[in-house]
Amino acid sequence: MKVQKGSVVKAAAGRDDGGYFVVTGVQNGFCFIADGKSRRLDSPKRKNIKHLRFTNSMIDLNDITDKKLRTLLKEFSAAE
C-alpha cells in the first residue's frame, strides 16, 4: 500500500505498539505519526514504515484539531 498523508495506521512495534495513529508526513522511509493525545499534530513522532501496519482508511487533515483526531481514532480501537 502506498503511504499517504492522512492514512490511518496501527503501530506494530515500540512503546506505542497496538495504538492507532494518522500519518502526517513521509520522509526517507519514515512516517510522522500523531494520535492527538500523546503525540500532537504539531509534534508528530518519527516512526519507521516497517513498524506500521496500514489500514484502508483515510482521514482528511485539513482544519482538524487534536480533539477531533482523538475521537476519530477512538472508533478504530473500539472496533477491535
Write the topology of this structure.
Layout: E1 7-11, E2 20-27, E3 30-34, E4 45-48, E5 52-58, H1 66-78
| Series of H and E elements | EEEEEH
Helix content: 10-25%
> How far apart, in Å, are the first and last alpha carbons?
21 Å
Number of helices: 1
Rg over CA atoms, rounded to whole Å, is 11 Å
Shape designation:
globular
Based on secondary structure, the structural category is alpha+beta
Walk across the major sheet and give the strand order.
Answer: 4-3-2-1-5
Unreliable stretches (pLDDT < 50, length at least 5) are: none
- Main sheet properties: 5 strands, antiparallel
Q: Beta fraction of the residues?
A: 35-45%
- Can you count the beta strands? 5
Q: Indicate the mean pLDDT.
A: 91
Oligomer: single chain
